[in-house]
Design goal:
By secondary structure, this protein is α/β, with parallel strands linked by helices. It has two domains: 157 residues, Alpha/beta knot; 72 residues, tRNA(m1g37)methyltransferase, domain 2 (Trp Operon Repressor, Chain A), CATH 1.10.1270. 33% of the residues lie in helices and 17% in strands. The strands form three sheets. A five-stranded parallel sheet has the order 2-1-6-5-7, sandwiched between helices. Strand 1, helix 1 and strand 2 form a beta-alpha-beta unit. The longest helix has 19 residues. It is elongated and about 70 Å long. The relative contact order is 0.14. The model has no long low-confidence stretch (mean pLDDT 95). S-adenosylmethionine binds next to strand 5. Specifically methylates guanosine-37 in various tRNAs.
Length: 245
Amino acid sequence: MRVDVVSIFPDYLAPLELSLVGKARRTGLLDLRVHDLRDWATDRHRTVDDTPFGGGAGMVMRPDVWGRALDDVLGDADDGPVRLVIPTPSGEVFTQRTAEAWAQDERLVIACGRYEGIDARVAERYRERGVAVSEVSIGDYVLNGGEVAALVVVEAVGRLLPGVVGNPESLVEESHGAAGLLEYPVYTKPPAWEGLEVPEALLSGHHARIARWRRDRALERTAARRPDLLDALAADTLDAHDREV
Ligand code: SAM
């Protein structure tokens, strides 16, 4: 997969050289390119923003600068299908389902806004040109820029690419996975620490008992922390034992 990130703070994306995403870049599983939006500004101050039409506080990012940048970065239609991702707190919420869908894409281009955001005509223009444009929010809060959202998207999507996470089994029982539940609590050595014991079922070596314990804790945790996830489960997802938990 190829991912391009366009930002006025390209250094903000430096963490993408680390950990599993960094390794995926080095081994060629992920072709990640970071661009400085100001390279497409035309004045000597490398201006990318201006005052909002209609008045009000703050500045808005200019469509002409973004247009030049995105025309170059998106490239020709011959380069294959590409999704333009525009992070914004007014977008649809980015979820694990979104990450799963985008992991099937060949190319993502992430346009990081700053100030009051990007002139709305930018999304409109690329939609009209047939580009898949996704305006997404990473949660109900407001950040100063789209770079943190870009980090979130690249990590959430990147770890789903085949070969990025060493053991694909790790992706199976996670929170927000196919079961629709939060993950159960996890433990490692030592079995006793600060007077706290690892639950006995996990030390039993009995696979069915461990699986039952884990499912029960996942159900309890989901009910306590995210009852909305339980409500969203299909009616036949829970068996009689699940319902007692
Ligand atoms: N005026 C905008 C609004 O109220 O919707 C907020 C602009 S915000 C200060 C600047 C930039 O930060 C946005 O263009 C977007 O790129 C990014 N951003 C802020 N919060 C975000 C969120 N929750 N999800 C995704 N991107 C976000």
